[in-house]
Write a structure and sequence with these properties.
By secondary structure, this protein is of the alpha/beta class. About 25% of the residues lie in helices and about 30% in strands. The protein is globular, with a radius of gyration of 16 Å.
Length: about 220
């Protein structure tokens, strides 16, 4: 593992933002393609997609480094199987999960760790299972903003290193994501630049969304 995970408990220790569970449209649109009811959410956060999935009868395991996020999930849905862990240390049980989600998480890691996690997903998800991920694109304003900041150093492969807290931010292209999941059937690949109103302060973001199916 390279660097530290983002510590949201420390970052928001004085005022932790609370977000409502709200299915992503892209995932909801393709629920009929999921072959079974076992789901894994790597970086579950406050359960945006996992709580609605659980209410639909899915058996959801959620992994997160933030104890506060796990507490919020537990309070809002006691049926979730919650695990406190850095997702880089989490081994995915082979052929157990029909759906694996990692939404807006992988880009806060060094790409070496991202690649190990995606290999973990690819090798162990059940046949015909669906993968759903969101990552920052090169169009995300943070790429330019942090590239010009003295707090960050620019590494190869569109990776930025935060020298203050030893964390990383990685930015991707659609071609890179498709290569990472080569051998999977592409259900959705999209790139968008939009106003994100889900954070503590509304901001613009460049996002790549991917849904793939193991065949």
């Amino acid at each position: 593992m390279i660097g530290n995970p983002v510590n949201y408990d420390k970052k928001f220790k004085d005022s932790f933002p609370i977000f409502p569970a709200n299915f992503d449209y892209e995932l909801k649109r393709y629920l009929n393609l999921i072959p079974g009811k076992n789901a894994l959410d790597l970086g579950i956060g406050q359960g945006r997609n996992s709580i609605p999935l659980s209410k639909l009868g899915f058996n959801v395991t959620g992994v997160d480094y933030s104890t506060k996020c796990l507490e919020i999930c537990k309070n809002n849905c006691d049926k979730l199987n919650l695990i406190h862990s850095d997702i880089r240390n989490f081994y995915i049980e082979k052929n157990k999960y029909d759906l694996i989600i990692s939404r807006c998480v992988l880009h806060f890691l060094h790409k070496t760790d991202c690649y190990q996690i995606t290999n973990n997903i690819k090798n162990n998800i059940r046949s015909n299972g669906l993968v759903y991920i969101h990552v920052f694109s090169l169009e995300d304003p943070k790429f330019i903003k942090h590239s010009t900041s003295s707090d960050f150093e620019i590494l190869d492969n569109n990776i930025l290193h935060n020298k203050i807290n030893d964390t990383y931010i990685s930015f991707f292209t659609k071609e890179e994501i498709l290569k990472l999941f080569s051998g999977f059937k592409t259900i959705l690949i999209s790139e968008e630049y939009c106003l994100d109103q889900g954070g503590e302060i509304p901001h613009y973001a460049g996002i790549i969304k991917y849904i793939g199916q193991k065949i």
